[in-house]
Amino acid sequence: MLLNVVKYVSSVLNVVKFVKRLAESAGMALDREAVVRAGLELLDTEGLEGLTLRKIAAALDVKAPALYWHFQNKQQLLDEMATTMARDAYAGHDLAALAAERPWQDLLRVQADGLRRMLLGHRDGARLFGGTAMTDSGPVVAGEPLLRALTDAGADLRTATAVLRTLNCFVLGFVLEEQGIVAPDGQRDPRFDPMARSERVDRDRYPLTSASSEHLFGDLDRSFRDGVDMIIGGVRLGERG
């Protein structure tokens, strides 16, 4: 009886080892970049809720365990996807050269516009990007020219860092809401129709709130520019200790 149990356990362990070797060999054959690109493609078609390791594996014609050769869990994959998004966004953008020609205000506008384009470039891009960690220093050090421009203009490093953080957080939050208003195909969610919102508010009691609907949900490009300009206009370099 005991001998049979030992044989059974041994056979199970051999099967487990065999499956593990298959997964490892498949994972080694997979290119890490291919996994990330497949994840981004799936994100665009399925959205963040539909992004699973199983579906990515199916798209690559491998078994899900093969992906664990490169990524131990889904969060690691999301971090790498976000890093790839940022790396792609900064490719071809020489902020250092731009900093030599234009003032820091223009650099911040370029940064804001580029970040917004990057997030809008993928379905649920803002939801994916928020809370992720960059997996290499490339996208991180890309902000060095911005910090340099601000400190050269009189800001201490703490202030310069706060300016960039505030700007980036505004862009992330703006796009998070923007992607809830406008679908990937460009169709607007009728719940955010400015006229409908205005009509839901008692205009006699709340005339300003009613009239503000167009500014909130009308021209999103203009709203974005207004927000960026307010942040830049509020920067006071050299006044914070």
Structural description of this entry:
The protein is mainly alpha-helical. The protein has two domains: 1-72, Arc Repressor Mutant, subunit A (Orthogonal Bundle); 93-240, Tetracycline Repressor, domain 2. It is built from 14 helices and no strands. The chain has helices at residues 2-29, 32-46, 53-59, 74-90, 95-99, 104-120, 125-129, 138-141, 144-152, 157-181, 194-200, 207-211, 213-217, 220-233. Helix 2 packs across helix 4, helix 9 packs across helix 10 and helix 10 (157-181) runs antiparallel to helix 14 (220-233). It starts with a helix and ends in an 8-residue tail after the last helix. Residues 15-20 and 22-28 have low confidence and may be disordered.
